[in-house]
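Moderator note: this is an archived Q&A kept for reference. The question asked for a predicted structure of one protein chain; the sequence and the answer are reproduced below.
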Amino acid sequence: MAAAIGMGGLAACGDSAGPEAGGVTTEDLQGIEDDLGALEERVGVLEDAPADAGASVDPTAEGEAGVVEDEAGVFDDAQSLIGQDATVSAAVSEVITSSDVGSAFRIGNETGEPIAVVSASPPAQLETDDVVRVSGTVVQVQRDTFEQDFGIAADELFDDPDVFFDTFDGEVAMAADRVEVLQEQTGN
């Protein structure tokens, strides 16, 4: 009899009353699966689209400011995007610093506000007027959360962090997960 009660108690220990705290739910997995499906569809469309061999790659050709893609609206209203992931392509308007531990620069377009980008892994030979694609999180620059937000300590990235914070503290920036040079500037 005691063995039967013991077995019943053990069987009850294995039963779950629901998802564990911090566990992944079916809805979470479905959301990820839906996002992945949408991304695969977008990649398929891009892969199937024919390249325009006659298209100009000169950022100043035909009066354009280069490849500017800003579907999220980072240049128009970055403040409303704080905490969100975004991808934007534009020309580098200023290289603030570039070293072996990271980089900081501004990108912008002709209609909106330029935005600072901080990356813990710099692209090679980044220069003004290079066209880049940046993916990352939109954040507000704050001295006390800089390392947490950008993944690098300000004193490791900047020769004089105070100068950076005097200019950028409180402004919106992108904490870059990825920086890809789409087109290098010409003339050097």
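Archived answer notes: The longest strand covers residues 85-98.
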